[in-house]
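5'-nucleotidase domain-containing protein 1
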Amino acid sequence: MFRSFKLSDYDCVCLDLDNALCRYNISNLLQLQYRLLKKQMVDRGYNEKYFSSTLSAEDIDFIQKGLFMDFEKGNVLYLRADGYILKASHGTSAMDAVQIEREYGKSRRWAVTDSFCVNKLSTWNGPLSDKMRSFLDYTDCQASLVFAQAVDFVDAAKGRPDRYRIWPDLLDGIVAMFSSGGGYAEAITEFPGNYLRKCDPQVIEWMKSLKSAGILLVLITGSGESSASKTAAHCLGSNWKELFDLLIFHACKPAFFSEKRPFVNSKETSQCSELQFGFCKAYNGGNWNAFQDSLAKFCKKSEPRCIYIGDNLIQDVYAPEAYTKCESCAVVEEIAAEGFCPGGHPDKPFLVSKRWGSYLHDNETSSDTVWGDIVKKHSHMCIPFLESFARKPISFEFVPFWPTMVETSV
Ligand SMILES: [Mg+2]
């Protein structure tokens, strides 16, 4: 179905920070994270020889956002929209159809991922989150390779167990990697140019043109103010906060859209019921409905029209549309790497995968993946980068295809 899309139709554009407004050098980022997480696993007793000294072409091809880890069985899964297991791997070894059916039955389904397919937040927290996890962005997606290699180690060292217990170690390792002294924050702070890309000047001009047109520009990020400031200052310049009408830190998505957490003034600890818009106004926490109420008063409109633009297909795309009236636009860099848009992608080897297939659509079975289904059903538009919008006037009417991607060169 044709659905036209114009940014000038919106009263408010809300932006995610990491991997949406601020782009990373994904090749360098994933290699850094792999090296740091491998060290954490070795420190927890996993044999170093089952991990790679540097990522091989085969390792890089294994990495993909949105793979599902079955913690107990030690498997990694690539799923069709309805939960059917299209491809699977035990550790790093590809499973054939017979092996998949032996583990998951003739229907090639698993109750835990079936539950996820019905309600995408059902496995976010609670008991099912101890059974499976899918890493959804470049902040952690290389961890599915580390998980698979840890399974290889357990199989070789102890024989194949009935139930693997790698997840608690992997989770500890991920938390330690991102904590002070874990190496991640230190590397980004010391060598930001290795890991972050400077924002295209056209994107900054586009942000200014939205404001000039009377469209409010709001940052909603899960990051805290100090870590967001380091990233944003490198990508956008030291005056980056002035580009926004409102800044929301520690947003805790997807709960920001699905729950009722209070806003806290970022300079104080007191809760606020009504938000003030304007120069460098900033808050922590909060929820969409409270934001929408303040926005309605500020705009003097009962239902101001908003769009949230972000890369995480659960937090930024599914949650806004499933729980609020906020529309969403998916930023999916894979569509550039996979050749859907002219111009390609500088980190293509890390974003495409011959082993698993396309991120959004399995060409072998002509079916959408779980992620392609979310983009189709829950996003109003899908772009590879914000540059896709910045190259056009804000009143430009985009012609979507498949059915919500923007075909535009960047
Ligand atoms: Mg993001």
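thats it. DSSP finds 17 helices and 18 strands in the chain. The radius of gyration is 21 Å. bye
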